[in-house]
Specification:
Blueprint lengths: L4 H4 L10 H13 L1 H4 L13 E6 L5 H12 L3 E6 L11 H10 L4 E6 L4 H6 L6 E6 L5 H15 L8 E5 L6 H12 L3 E5 L23 E4 L2 H4 L5 E4 L4 H4 L7 H6 L3 H4 L8 E2 L12 H4 L6 H24 L1
Parallel strand pairs: 1-2, 1-3, 3-4, 5-6, 5-8, 6-7, 8-9
Length: 320
Amino acid sequence: MQADWNQTGHLLGLEGCSRSSLISLLDDAAQLLPIARNESTGTGEFIGRTVATLFFENSTRTRLSFTMAARRIGADVLDLNASTSSTAKGETLLDTALNIQAMGVDAMIMRCTASGGPQLVSQHARVPIINAGDGKHEHPTQALLDALTLCQHFQKKTLEGLTIAIVGDIASSRVARSNAFSLTTLGADVVFVGPPSLVPPEMESLVESDRDGVGTIRIAHDLDAVLQDIDAIMMLRVQFERHGGEGIDERYSQQFGLSTARADRLPDGVPVLHPGPINRGIELDPEVADGNRSLVLDQVTCGVAVRMAVLQGLLRGQSS
């Protein structure tokens, strides 16, 4: 079990984070929502500081959200273009990161294909490292923004008493893993739903469910059977690039996609989330993605606020 993120000087994952540290971060992020919504101006607290974004996998929301978050708090952003960097010549991830650190940056935000990349760099770095997604391991800020979205929707500081279904390609999903840690720590019960080929049985024992106040995890292979028992549903993209389509066929959408007809069977008030990008017509019908239940764009806005809060916390800690 790792220490709370705000004690390590990095944000590498959410496994082992305490409820109090998650609530504190979400409270900070909630206070920043007016800035994220462009309803008030940024803080300007970190003018003269620079954060670097090192993305070795494609990204739209996470990369731009971190860039916006950094600028909203006054920081400059140094962006590495991985396709034209020296990594294409064989330079290692660690050498790249240490060279960028030597340029005088104050924090580095990293996404990489290999699990454990940000953790490796953090062992050698003198500045905060933020994991923006590493392989199939974790994506902590996505889970934090999902938690903030749900807390705002239900007007709660925790998620006790709620059951959240996470549906789809659980095996490939760092989002599912990070959400399992954060949602259960905040008291929610999580149901992983998908075909056996995409929901490994070991996911059920991902968290220590015997801790006081921690929610449980269970696995289901029939989406229709859980619809009436959930308070929110999160659909995940089928990550074709990670398994070459193995285990996926034309029946997937019929059995595990959230069609308009299936969404109509959800209890009133059950919101729909998706971390993006959406494979429309596969895991989510366009009418559902754009409908009244959808919190997809709220998630994007909450992402800016969460990433502002993370950057503030780590940069303030670096200054103290």
